[in-house]
Amino acid sequence: MEPIAPITGMNDVLPERAPAWQHVERVAREVFAAYGYQEIRVPILEQTGLFKRAIGEFTDIVEKEMFSFEDRGGDGLTLRPEATAGIARAAISNGLVHNQRHRWYTLGPMFRGERPQKGRYRQFHQIDAEAYGFEGPDVDAELILLSARLWKRLGIEGLKLEINSLGTPEARRAYRATLVEYFSAHADALDADSTRRLGGNPLRILDSKNPALAALIAGAPRLTDHLDAESRVHFEGLCARLDDAGVAYTVNPRLVRGLDYYTRTVFEWITTAWGAQNAVCSGGRYDGLVAQLGGEHTPAVGWALGIERLVILMEEQGRTVSAEPPHVFFVMVGAAAERLALRLAEQVRDAWPDLRLETGLGGGSFKSQFRRADKSGAALALVLGDGEVERGVVALKPLRLGGEQEEVALADLPARIGSRLGLG
RNA sequence: GUGGACGUAGCUCAGCUGGUAGAGCCCCGGAUUGUGAUUCCGGCCGUCGUGGGUUCGAGCCCCAUCGUCCACCCCA
Q1: ipTM score here?
Q2: CATH architecture for segment(s) A18-168+228-316
Q3: What is the pLDDT of residues A226-240, one digit of tens each?
């Protein structure tokens, strides 16, 4: 039989690495709770039209990266490539945008059909923060502070914050026209990628990593010079609050984002440790999105971080997280011992609900079961063989505790385990 | 979509200028017959990614194909 292969770019998170994921998710939930953000869960599948409308028809994501298909009724469905569109849709569907304010987070898988490489996968996982109904730069600042706290809690170092403002859609449109004019005048100097972008998303030319274009880009008209007055005030408000909080940042006038829905604030937390896949967390404001999806005009802002990238970063910085070993490993040799041991194990678990007790299922000699007991990292071994069964006792052998091996009567087992391990 | 590397036991890898496969780890058993990490001994494990071709003979050469990784692009 041929084994069935996994799907390209879709990875298994094995038990060895799962504790790191759990840690990231647990800390994130705690930090969100500390700021009053509530969890919202939305479907992984949405109508294809939602993403086209939200993200933009001419973005790379929509043009060539979405996993789209028709269901049996002929409806066009798409595995979500990002979380914001679905959440904005859910807010509208559930009547949560009228005169209301919400701070939410969600977490889960996203799908984009790109070529996989380090830190980039076809199924990847994001933690996503969203705030609806807040107009001012205070929420922009809060979201950034929240993320900064997350890095601190996770012990991640070396992330740099870059921020920028794209202004209102009108200001952005005007700037875009200026930019097209500028780059068209120097069309012969552009490389292939930038020429392609000139028609679709000229702002992205500013983001080019091609050193040959550096001078040309440096001479391009600046977005910050074309900001409308209100957006400027908004941006200054954000900067002031970041200054107040002592969060270091760089204003990067070339920072634009790949998704069409951003307005005003955009930001990225980037790592200098990698090459191109350097964005660990990024987001911005999308005041027009809810209206664009058919809801009442509602200001909104949020960010998303990539769990895979965070976990890689933590590993590279030596912050590994491993599973909690069992407290107790039950060595049981012989048919009678095995049956009695399973019964006793249940009694112990009844007495100590938080105790981690692993049994030597599958049998094996004393030697091999003790080897497993040692490998499991358990502090204490329970030993049950024919001799103990006859005597009506269980042997307790400390593996990573002081003290001697002892035999205890069956009825005393839970209490004795508790006192050897120093449990409540 | 483009470019570059690599695909040998469950895992990490070795295999010289082509002569029908090795090590370590893991797992199992043993070292006075019921007690873990170390040490020693033994055991288990492979159609060398797949399909063609060249050759007396290919893991080593050629072609194709699939897959993985890295980079570009894009993004989390």
Answers
A1: 0.86
A2: 2-Layer Sandwich (3.30)
A3: 899 999 999 999 999
